[in-house]
Amino acid sequence: MAIERSGELAPAVPLKDASTVILVRDGDRGVEVFLLQRVRGMAFAGGMTVFPGGGVDPSDSAAAVAWAGPPVRWWSERFGTSESLAQALVLAAVRETFEECGVLLAGPTPDTVVADTTAFGPARRQLEAREFTFGEFLEREGLVLRADLLRPWSNWITPVGEGRRYDTRFFVAAAPEGQIADGDTSEADAVRWQTPQEAIAHWQDGGSVLLPPTWSQLTALSRFGSVAEILAAEPQITPILPTLVTGDGELRVEFPEQDGYYEAGPHPWAARGAN
């Protein structure tokens, strides 16, 4: 979701399906999460700190790719979607992660993963520019999509009243050994690895802006002691649809287990709901 407009709440707009991937790794300070600070002025979540991700492309559901891991039907059941959409969500998750931070969850065989994505730099930029599809890229490079490296995590829907609305499925994935997550994308001002606790403290100190879904995922991840524990978890995927509430010239987003989100007081985006 994004808080991106002022004035009275806009009429409901169609939902766009999207995928977001929470990359995790074990560090000296505990589990670390990869975060991007998006470029200010972007139409969606400008200036916000987020996980890699983006909208599903029509080509994601039509692609015929070599696939390793749980079949499309399994993903369909976990997310409660059609099989066509389930495939599109998984492909979008892998594609967006590659485009936004250079991490590629694919390998030359069903049980391997690319060790270094540097050679794919030009292709990454072409994918971001939509010069060819992700399915075409995988086929050209002889790569197998590693769906088994992803885990379904949660499902958040942008509130009614927002100018842009997404039905976003969150995944978690361990960062492949040897690959380097970077900020070489036009959509990020900065990137960083932080423990969930560090990311929340950074936000509390005013160093970042976290929207409810991001804060909620970080809060949940802070309860785990290792990547192995995270990957072994089997969260129930229940769609979360926050509610926008305005009052006293301020916007508030109501969502489950929200109390900690408002302990520090109003958020930078809250006044945007003022009339």
Automatic annotation (TrEMBL):
InterPro entries assigned to the protein according to its UniProt record, in alphabetical order: NUDIX_hydrolase-like_dom_sf (IPR015797), NUDIX_hydrolase_dom (IPR000086), NUDT19 (IPR039121)
What residue ranges carry the coiled-coil annotation? none
Q: Which cofactor does it need?
A: Mg(2+); Mn(2+)
Its keywords, alphabetically, are: Hydrolase, Magnesium, Manganese, Metal-binding
Q: Which domain of life is it from?
A: Bacteria
Record the organism.
Answer: Rhodococcus indonesiensis
- Nudix hydrolase domain mapped to chain residues: 14-217
Gene3D superfamilies listed in its UniProt record: Nucleoside Triphosphate Pyrophosphohydrolase (3.90.79.10)
Write the protein's name.
NUDIX domain-containing protein
- Tell whether Metal-binding is among the UniProt keywords: yes
